[in-house]
Amino acid sequence: MLSYRHAFHAGNHADVLKHVVFIQLMRYLAQKDAPYMVIDTHAGAGVYALASKEATKNAEFESGIARLWQRKDLPDPVADYVGVVRALNPDGKLRFYPGSPYCANQVLRPEDRLRLFELHPSDGRILAENFRKLEEQEGRGGARGKRVLIQQGDGFLGLKALLPPPSRRGLVLIDPPYEVKEDYRRVKDTLEDAVKRFATGIYAVWYPMLQRMESREMPNRLKRVPANGWLDVRLTVAAPAPDAFGGLRSSGMFILNPPWTLEPMLRELMPWLVAALGQDAQASFTLESGQTVTGQAIRREP
Ligand code: SAM
């Protein structure tokens, strides 16, 4: 089943959380000169026009990036993220939203590598076309072509062949649609396999907070994947919707092997993000981190 199109959701509060964290993880890896690889297992279309019929259907970007666009008091990580969005909108009007592949392309250095998987044939084509246009605009031609590889196919499976990356430094973003409950299981299985192949990689998983059992249980399951540590951050912008059509109100980013800098950064940032994106009195965040010892999740006290 391939009905999910990210164009309907681009730039919403969940994308803000995901892309702020994603960009900061890349900034962390870029602190060392040694190159690193970013693998995006569920890349989407790469760039989204916010005037499209998909994006305007529920105008989800109004709950996310649009609330930050005019603000002058952005904390550094949010300013960094909004800067990436501004690079796509040089005239200052918010018309386009960058998906994770564009965010990565903006942040990576020439020596770093980007590997993108997208299963949906239409989004795969749009993604390839977006990168072709980027190459043209930026004039990097062949160099860019070598740096970024796009594959139309299953990212859960494709990841296996890429681990460990030759540089032994890498970040994997796993961001499935979760329309089918299989996705929850595949995320966990994929992480378990990936850490065996590349134990020191940083793995970032986005997930929705929904009523369904698989969603509520997933973070606790991921905490048991053997690794050096985990961090789980959740942003809730409003009370749960009364029905299935009320839209997503809460989502999380689960990081395996998080850099030590991430938790203090998020502890400072999240109250600001709750105030900026919150829609009612139930807007809140949670932030937990811990270590995994022989299959048991040990929570670290803040
Ligand atoms: N990561 C993107 C971003 O942040 O801009 C958004 C990705 S969207 C949430 C999920 C994407 O995964 C959709 O474009 C969908 O077509 C694609 N997809 C679904 N199953 C997949 C699979 N097994 N492998 C690769 N892509 C898949």
Automatic annotation (TrEMBL):
GO terms for biological process: rRNA base methylation. Keywords: Methyltransferase, RNA-binding, rRNA processing, S-adenosyl-L-methionine, Transferase. Pfam families: RsmJ. The keyword Repeat does not apply. Signal peptide: none annotated. One of its GO terms (molecular function) is RNA binding. The record marks Y4 as: Interaction with substrate rRNA. Its EC number is 2.1.1.266. InterPro entries: RlmJ, SAM-dependent_MTases_sf. It catalyses: adenosine(2030) in 23S rRNA + S-adenosyl-L-methionine = N(6)-methyladenosine(2030) in 23S rRNA + S-adenosyl-L-homocysteine + H(+). The keyword Methyltransferase applies. S-adenosyl-L-methionine binds at H19, H42, S100, E118, D154, G155, D175. SUPFAM superfamilies: S-adenosyl-L-methionine-dependent methyltransferases (SSF53335). The active site is at D175. PANTHER family: RIBOSOMAL RNA LARGE SUBUNIT METHYLTRANSFERASE J (PTHR37426:SF1). Belongs to the RlmJ family. Specifically methylates the adenine in position 2030 of 23S rRNA. This is Ribosomal RNA large subunit methyltransferase J. It comes from Noviherbaspirillum pedocola.
